Amino acid sequence: MIKLLASLFIIGASVLLGNEYANNLVNRPRYIRFFKNALQILEAEIVYSQETIKESLHAVSNQIPEPLATLFQHIADDIQHDQDELYPIWEKHIHVFYRSNPIQVDDKEILLQFGRTLGQHDVIQQQKYIRLAINHLERTLKEADDKHHRYGKMARSVGVLIGIFIVLLLL
Question: How far is CA 72 from the centre of its chain?
């Protein structure tokens, strides 16, 4: 009886891990699209509204879905008027976001590189850096969509099969 319960527990745990990995493959492209949309809104706010970075980030947070809205809201709230460097705030919040959401290291690096330029240049240069970040996100979006289509269903199946394989090894 204990062997049966342990076997079911092992299979259940591996199924959950497979499903979690598959869900990350499904959600990553969605989050990349959200970031692209947020950067496009940020570009419009900076270039056309001529607002400060803090005001622009607040405006972006009002126009995008959660959890990105919270990310941009927290970044905007942490900006001080007498502060010279925006990057440490950006970096801190991106690292926190990365730990709890289905973006990968490549996506995080693109966002961190963009954060190094945010607020450091005039409007025209800032627009160029925003477009560059959007182009990089488009590239990773294609990769994420490809991984999702290629490995999404397989991850769930592999989770079940690994669980069964472990149970067979232990019996």
Answer: 13
Position 83 scores a pLDDT of 63
CA dihedral 89, 95, 99, 101 (to 10 degrees): 70
CB proximity list for 17: less than 8 A, separation 6 or greater: 159
**What burial class does residue 76 get, using C-beta atoms within 10 Å of its C-beta: 0-12 exposed, 13-18 middle, 19+ buried?**
buried
pLDDT at 80: 76
Neighbours of 80 (CB within 10 A): 9
DSSP letter string, 66-88: TTHHHHHHHHHHH--TT-S--HH
Residue 74 has, within 13 A of its CA and on its CB side, a CA count of 16
SS3 content of the chain, % helix, strand, coil (to 5): 85, 0, 15
Mean pLDDT, 10 residues at a time, the chain of 171 residues: 86 89 87 93 86 86 89 86 75 90 88 86 86 93 89 84 87 78
List the domain range (segments joined by +) for residue 85.
2-170
Q: How many domains does the chain have?
A: 1
